[in-house]
Amino acid sequence: MPESHLTVGGLSESELLARIFPRLNNLHPNGGTAEGSALLLGPGDDAAIVAAPDGRTVVSIDTQVQDQDFRLVWRNGYRTTGFDVGWKAAAQNLSDINAMGAQSTAMVVSLTLPPETPVFWVEDFADGLSHAIRDLGADGCSVAGGDLGRGRELAVTVAILGTLAGQQPVLRSGARPGHTVALAGTVGHAAAGLALLESGPAVDLLSPALRTVMDRQCRPLPPLAAGPAALASGASAMLDISDGLVRDGSRLAAASGVVLNLDPAALKLLTEPLAAAADAVDGDAMAWVLGGGEDHGLLATFPADVQLPPGFAAIGSVEALAPTESTGVKIAGRPADTVGWDHFAD
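Above: the chain's sequence. Below: its structure in token form.
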């Protein structure tokens, strides 16, 4: 049977793993781990062993499910590659560790596959996973192992570990009145990309600029250098924007007992790169900026006397609650009513 026709149902688990491991071992030139890696024992035994010299481990987990988090074939004709799913699985988990000001050390991956899944798709997935770790700059992270299973639909779960290297984490609860609200990375690009995938022109007709926007939904670019930089600069609060600027900003505001007041001029600047996509699908760039998730940028607050670290731009300020006011996000002093992404409601 030609390689291109081979499916996972035609291989044993050991044979499939034999095709995956070499792709993950190419992550680093010295056999699968970075120099100084926390990974002490990787794939091959019943469990991996990861060092935690700090005495603490930062941990997070995320899942992608076919037809809930991605389509194999989108309405504009784009076919999701294994590389896309692997990249996104790594990116969204690396971003969660980044949002604590920590650095990722190891991940384990659970992959559920229908038997008709092409083997090349799985190999492509492994390539996407390893390329994201390397290209996004998570040099200290290695794939420690995982699990393969059979199911009716594709599903990917990644659990990730990280280290604070002796520092205190940046939590959501430290924002105080007078602090600056700042953003690293992008917002709205992944939402614009989703609109292009679901209702835009055929993928073959997209301009290079629109294709770049579309790619941010399939292969997000979390600013991994920004998390540790924010910690080092004295960020008071921080989180990963996975469900939208307003929804996630409201979570930070609630944890800190404050209001975030966003600057409309700063928000307008964020819409400018999305103008062409909005024209292409008759979309609303500001709605994408305020409510679109999955860019995995960082929303952080800093004391007013702190110079913002590279990669961050001020987009508002933290305010105290009025006597009858609830926590949340405002724009120029008026409540923002954008809902954002909800995994169970949408």
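The longest helix spans residues 82-98.
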